[in-house]
Design goal:
- The protein is an alpha/beta fold and 505 residues long.
- 48% of the residues lie in helices and 14% in strands.
- Strands 5, 6, 7, 8, 9 and 10 form a 6-stranded mixed β-sheet that branches. Strands 1, 2, 3 and 4 form a 4-stranded mixed β-sheet that branches.
- Helix 1 runs parallel beside helix 12 and helix 4 packs across helix 5.
- The longest helix has 48 residues.
Length: 505
């Protein structure tokens, strides 16, 4: 193969790769639409499902979304110290018995058979989305009957459990995490469900403690996901935020805290959704999650991103055209129908809609790379120039809503344009807004979080669950598998977007 043939072959491979990227984008976009439709259905069903766990006389709007720290503190203050689960007769719930013995039952010194000298009994709870069962664990200990007492060792069975010595199992942890962070059912209602329906009295403080332990075990997965998102193949992150009320704020004068959401582009090789708790909305450039990110952030008009960019030259912004369009749509909605189509606001919206239609058709036609950039310059740039003339050459009535919309567009104008020259950037930040939606669905049901520590546990588990879902994994089976294998397998094999994770489940 000569140089000319080699260059031609490389060009063909590059073109084939671009086509594959375009197909992958369309598949993920379609999948996102299906997930959004499913989410709308889930929003209606969640409250109905939750009512199975809530007495008819109890209101749901007082319940916190995450009570981990809150319940643990309550329990320490209100209840006297006593042995865990001493009031529960687990024996009547046992469905399986497992006897653990040392691997070798002969003395390594003299070779004689070891004799049993005692045993410890404990119980474990395992669960799947349908069934809950209790397993009795008998841990036997042995020693050699003849060896000198000074050298006579006691031999115990070796175990390698992630929650060693605990009643908690990977299955039960996954069960609680799925019901709490995917279905949004609070611990106090799960406690009633276990007691009344299953006859198993597991307290809300124990469940809170289990989720704290689960979040701690899964923290390496969460931190690796955060790191991977900062190093995506496209160097593009979609960002948005939503409010979260803490029932116990560190600062009593502060009414709201925030959950920031960061999502990878549909074009990225790794699909990741990160939820991060912040006590306040302000973005501190030195401590922000994005401070070391080198690329584009697709976002709304929140000025915190301007502050971040000002202090971090590695950050570039792509503002959302859908946000700009929304401000003009709000004006049109308030106009009489007979004058609506003659207004400048209508003309601006009409031209913005043409941009979205061109983009939609381009993706359907699998245009990508330089072909997509060329199309944007040929067909979209002239329309953008027309919008520029309408916005910058019109003087709206002072103090009007239209003036506010015009001024907003002027303010973010330069940040609306980077997508023209970057095939990985999009017109809108709808992806991040859709990522916020699952969190908002749970918040609608339970309104607040117990404390800052509880909110931090929430976002860790929520990030892992949502990332599993967008990668086509069942969240219960995924969390169970990770907890079963996190002590023996490398992190690379356990991430929700790992190459073979779906087959492993």
């Amino acid at each position: 193969m000569n140089l000319e043939e080699a260059l031609k072959y490389i060009k063909e491979l590059e073109e084939k790769n671009k086509n594959l990227e375009a197909e992958l984008y369309n598949e993920r976009k379609e999948k996102e639409k299906l997930l959004l439709a499913l989410m709308h259905q889930k929003e209606k069903k969640t409250i109905a499902y939750v009512r199975q766990f809530v007495p008819k006389t109890e209101k749901t709007n007082k319940v916190v979304i995450n009570e981990v720290e809150e319940i643990i503190k309550e329990d320490k203050v209100a209840a006297p110290r006593k042995k865990k689960f001493e009031d529960i007769d687990f024996e009547k719930y046992v469905s399986d018995v497992v006897v653990l013995k040392p691997d070798v039952l002969s003395c390594p010194t003299c070779g004689k058979d070891l004799v049993k000298i005692g045993e410890k009994v404990r119980y474990q709870i395992d669960a799947d989305p349908i069934n809950v069962k209790v397993t009795k664990i008998i841990k036997e200990t042995y020693k050699c009957p003849d060896c000198n007492k000074k050298d006579n060792k006691v031999y115990y069975p070796l175990v390698n459990e992630v929650f060693d010595g605990s009643i908690l199992t990977p299955g039960f942890a996954a069960y609680l995490a799925y019901h709490k962070y995917e279905l949004g059912i609070p611990f106090n209602h799960l406690e009633k469900h276990f007691s009344n329906t299953l006859g198993l009295p597991i307290s809300k403080s124990n469940m809170a403690d289990y989720m704290a332990k689960t979040a701690e075990v899964l923290t390496p997965i969460y931190e690796r996901m955060k790191s991977d998102l900062l190093n995506t193949s496209t160097k593009v992150i979609h960002a948005d935020e939503t409010t979260l009320t803490l029932s116990k704020q560190v600062n009593p004068d502060r009414k709201k805290s925030y959950v920031f959401v960061y999502a990878s582009s549909f074009y990225d090789d790794k699909q990741i959704h990160i939820y991060e708790f912040n006590e306040i909305r302000a973005i501190d450039p030195e401590s922000s999650y994005l401070k070391d990110f080198d690329g584009y952030v697709i976002c709304d008009d929140y000025h915190g991103y301007d502050k971040l960019r000002k202090n971090k030259e590695n950050i570039r912004l792509q503002r959302c055209w859908a946000h700009a369009r929304r401000k003009y749509m709000d004006i049109l909605k308030a106009m009489p129908k007979e004058v609506r189509n003659k207004s400048i606001a209508f003309n601006i919206v009409y031209k913005m809609d043409k941009l979205f239609k061109i983009e939609e058709k381009a993706h359907k036609d699998k245009l990508f790379g330089q072909k997509l950039i060329d199309l944007r310059h040929e067909q979209e740039l002239p329309i953008i120039n027309q919008i520029h003339d309408l916005v910058f050459n019109y003087t709206p009535k002072q103090g009007s809503a239209f003036e506010g919309a015009i001024n907003y567009t002027k303010k973010v104008w330069d940040d609306l344009l980077p997508y023209l020259d970057n095939e990985y950037l999009e017109l809108s930040n709808n992806l991040a807004e859709r990522c916020v939606k699952p969190f908002v669905v749970n918040r609608k049901v339970f309104q607040t979080s117990g404390s800052e520590a509880g909110a931090i546990y929430t976002v860790k588990l929520f990030s892992i669950i949502r990332t599993a879902i967008i990668n086509g994994l069942d969240p219960y089976r995924y969390i169970k598998y990770v907890l079963e294998n996190i002590k023996s397998k490398p992190i690379d094999d356990l991430l929700p977007y790992s190459k073979d994770i779906a087959k492993a489940l």
